[in-house]
Write a structure and sequence with these properties.
The chain has helices spanning about 15-30, 50-60, 80-90, 110-115, 135-140, 195-205, 245-250, 280-290, 295-300, 305-335, 355-365, 390-405, and strands at about 35-40, 100-105, 125-130, 150, 150-155, 155-160, 180, 210-215, 240-245, 260, 265-270, 275, 340, 345-350, 370, 370, 385. It is of the alpha/beta class. β11 and β12 form a beta hairpin. The protein binds D-malate.
Length: about 400
């Protein structure tokens, strides 16, 4: 008899964004004449930067003749891309990261979801609330939690992010082994200072814990005093893994390319206290379960670091940040307390009512899709997240409609 992994039965019926897509689909079906503006899931709408498109084409041409054709590539990614990342994203900012510490992949969602499988199932985990649901759900699937009760999974140490701590979690008041952090934050759009991040690095060092640092939105940082990478913080090489993505940086949500940085100095322990290289374990996992990102896509990603690519990516980010500023301005003018949107594409708004009710109201009355804060955790109840990923015209139109409804 085939039996299931019954941890799956602890999960909520569907993934947050699938649930929202279902509701939006049902609304569109029963209101075929209503135009719906999507400011929900953080999916980019602008075309790829021209430099990436040209490199993508050239990569496809390389596949068309035997002299330049490539078959299986290295699972960890081609050196040309790993070297461009190490130099531009890390070494140029004083972060000591080498090309062979970078693993190219098809998404930060997959990497943040998969990484937990190299760690023991009985570790103590600290996860922010609200949070990107993938961190939590993948640990539920792996059996690291109890049941879902009263809005929380038993056995998880939740790090509450509320107005009281400016949505930046306080250090855990108990020992933990694995810590998830995301800055600029999804969903709240808040950032962390160097000093605050240093306290996390020091805490992890003291606890022999590991920080999983999701920096998928670092390109949106405009404040130069803020860290773009945890590896800008002294000591982080010994306690952190960082996840990044070309999805939001360069419009790659449909093209798929991301990377994970696993320093070689990073160690985890076996039951007898013996040390093991996390880099080697992740390499083992990656080479066994992943076949690499396609060559033309990696060429397109490499172009992000060319002179033209850098300029075009900057323009792309500024476009979405202009949308974010408009959302901040208009929602603020309506009297809503909000954060995010200045170093992030997400604006976190206190709707002062049930999140799903607010979501339904915006969808049914304004034809605008947002993301209900409660979908990101108990502390998200009462909030909604509005994403800046759409055209400026659509954002303007959505805000006009929202103003009429609220
Ligand atoms: C989000 O809207 O939170 C993100 O787009 C989800 C993702 O990147 O997987």
């Amino acid at each position: 008899m085939i039996t299931i992994n019954d941890n799956y039965l602890k999960l909520k019926a569907s993934y947050l964004f699938s649930d929202i897509a279902k509701r939006v689909g049902a609304f569109q079906k029963s209101n075929p004449d209503r135009e719906v503006i999507k400011l929900g899931i953080g999916d980019v709408t602008r075309a790829l930067p021209q430099a990436c498109v040209a490199a993508f084409h050239k990569g496809v041409d390389d596949m068309a003749t035997e002299k330049t054709f490539r078959g299986y590539g290295p699972e960890q990614g081609y050196d040309f891309l790993r070297e461009a990342i190490a130099k531009n994203d890390y070494q140029s900012r004083g972060a000591d990261i080498e090309a062979d510490e970078i693993f190219i992949s098809d998404g930060a969602k997959c990497d943040t979801g998969n990484i937990q499988e190299i760690f023991s199932t009985d570790i103590a985990i600290a996860i922010p609330d609200p949070v990107y649901p993938v961190y939590l759900d993948t640990n539920v699937m792996a059996g690291r939690t109890g049941d879902f009760k009263d809005g929380k999974y038993q056995g998880i140490h939740y790090l509450s992010c509320t107005r009281a701590n400016n949505f930046v979690p306080d250090l855990p008041n108990q020992p933990v082994d694995l810590i998830y952090l995301c800055f600029p934050n999804n969903p709240t759009g808040t950032t962390i200072t160097r000093e605050a991040l240093k306290t996390w690095v020091d805490f992890a060092k003291k606890e022999k814990a590991l920080i999983l640092y999701d920096a998928a939105y670092e390109a949106f940082i405009t404040d130069d005093t803020l860290p773009r990478s945890i590896f800008e913080i002294e000591g982080a090489r010994d306690v952190a893994i960082e996840f990044r993505s070309f999805s939001k940086t360069a419009g790659f949500t449909g093209t798929r390319c991301a990377f994970t940085v696993v320093p070689k100095s990073l160690m985890a322990f076996d039951k007898t206290g013996g040390k093991h290289s996390i880099h080697s374990l992740w390499n083992r996992r990656h080479t066994t379960k992943f076949n690499g990102v396609s060559y033309p896509v990696q060429r397109a990603a490499e172009a992000v670091y060319s002179v033209d690519g850098k300029k075009q990516v900057r323009e792309l980010i500024e476009y979405y940040l202009t949308n974010a500023a408009l959302i901040r301005k208009e929602m603020g003018a309506l009297g809503y307390d909000l954060v995010g949107g200045d170093n992030s594409p997400y604006i976190w708004i206190d709707g002062k009512s049930d999140s799903w009710e607010f979501f339904d109201r915006l969808l049914n009355q304004a034809g605008v899709v947002c993301t209900p804060g409660a979908g990101f955790g108990k502390c998200g109840q009462g909030y909604i997240r509005i994403s800046a990923f759409n055209s400026y015209e659509n954002v303007e139109k959505a805000l006009k409609r929202i103003k009429q409804v609220l």
